[in-house]
Design goal:
192 residues
Length: 192
């Protein structure tokens, strides 16, 4: 099953619509979807190292645009849905402390968590809920998401063929480690 999925993604990388699929996934992951775009970016860049920079640019732009949607979800829906619940349960003071801390350290949260396997949608929605400065949020998102995807593209472009051989020989190990990283991101989120 993993081999078929991997082969399908490699075939998709050769398709004229590859960048559109990657953009759709990166956009959705930044606001609502649980699968990180790296799951598609890596095989695509391995299959076509000559397109690695272009794919990283597509991934960055779509992720930042999706981040704007995540921010809007946190900002608009928080006021309509979550605030009445916080008030009803007496958690308004706790949220006010969260908002104050996010106002003080939100830039660092965005910069650090945007590079980690912690789901980016958590950062985007929390930024909107805390009414963090939207221009600063967008600028930090561009920096951190760009750094993440372009660093990945640089590594895959430089070491593409050996990485491809390694992945193809040890596909189960690679997917297990990727899944562990994703689960680790969720666990780290619970701790922090």
């Amino acid at each position: 099953m993993l081999r078929r999925l991997y082969d399908r993604i490699l075939a998709l990388a050769a398709s004229p619509r590859a960048a559109w699929w990657l953009a759709a996934l990166a956009f959705a992951e930044a606001s609502v979807f649980p699968v990180p775009p790296d799951a598609v970016l890596v095989p695509m860049a391995i299959a076509r190292p000559d397109r690695a920079w272009r794919l990283a640019a597509v991934c960055t732009a779509a992720s930042v645009a999706g981040g704007a949607l995540g921010y809007l979800i946190g900002y608009a829906l928080f006021e309509q849905l979550a605030r009445p619940l916080l008030h009803a349960y007496g958690y308004q003071a706790g949220f006010d402390r969260f908002r104050e801390l996010y106002g003080r350290y939100g830039l660092w949260v965005i910069l650090i968590k945007g590079l980690t396997p912690i789901p980016y949608k958590i950062v985007t929605i929390a930024s909107g809920a805390a009414a963090f400065s939207f221009p600063v949020f967008m600028a930090a998102s561009l920096v951190t998401r760009g750094a993440r995807f372009f660093l990945l593209a640089a590594l895959l472009r430089r070491f593409g063929l050996p990485v491809r051989d390694f992945v193809e020989r040890r596909l189960t190990l690679v997917t297990t480690l990727a899944a562990a990283g994703l689960v680790g991101g969720f666990l780290a989120l619970k701790v922090f």
